[in-house]
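== Sequence entry ==
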Amino acid sequence: MPIKLANRIGTEISSPEIKRKPAIGLGTRPKGLGMTSVTRRQLRPPAILLKRRLGAFGYPKKAKQEFSNIAGDLSSISGTVEEKAKWVINKLKGKPPKALPDLLREHNLPPGLFPQNITCYELDASRSKLVVYMPSACEASFKDGSIVRYASRVKGNLSRGKLAGIEGMKTKVLVWVKVAGVAVESHKSSKIWFTAGGVKKSRPRDAYETAREAVRVDEF
C-alpha cells in the first residue's frame, strides 16, 4: 500500500506503515549518545548545586559568606556527626546568643578561663552542660605563670561560680594533671580554685580575667 502523507503542514501523518519512535524520557541515555544534561546535574555534588542555586536566586553575599564560614568551622570540629549537626542548627538559628567570656562572667567565673581562639561552644541549659570546641589541642599561659592545656573538646557542668565534672582540661603542677573542676567562692573573691589531681589549689582570679591566645600542641 502506498504511503499517504499529509499535504498540509501541521497535519498528522496517518499511514500505519510509519511508526513513531518512543520519546526519550528525562535522565535516560540513548545507546550511542552522550550523557544527558539531566543526568549530569544529578551527579553533581550537593555543595556545587547549593552554590549555583544561591547565585541563581540572588542570595545575598552576606548569607553566602555565612555558609562558607560554617563549612570552615565545621571542618575543625572533631565531634560526632550528631554534635556537628546540632552545632550547624544552632549556628543557623543564631545561637549561641552571647560570646563565651560573657557567658562565664554571668556565672561568676573569670571570662578568660578559655582561650581567645576557640571554634565555638554549645550550652544545654536544661542539663547545664557546656561543651567548648577548639581547632586542636592547645595550651595557654597566664600572667601568674600558670599554664592550662585544652583538648579539642572540653566538657563540663556549668553553674553559678563553678565548672564541675570537667573533661579535656589539664594544668601543670610540676607535671601535667587533669583538671576536674574550677570554682570561685563568691562574687567578691579574688581567688579561683582549681581541683586537679585530687588537690585543690588557688590562683589569682585576675590572671584569668582576659582570654589569652592559645598555641597548638601535638597532643592533649
Q: What stands out?
A: The two ends are 90 Å apart (CA to CA). DSSP finds five helices and nine strands in the chain. The beta strands are 120-124, 129-133, 138-141, 147-159, 162-173, 175-183, 191-196, 199-204, 215-216. Residues 1-18, 24-28, 53-59 have pLDDT under 50 and may be disordered.
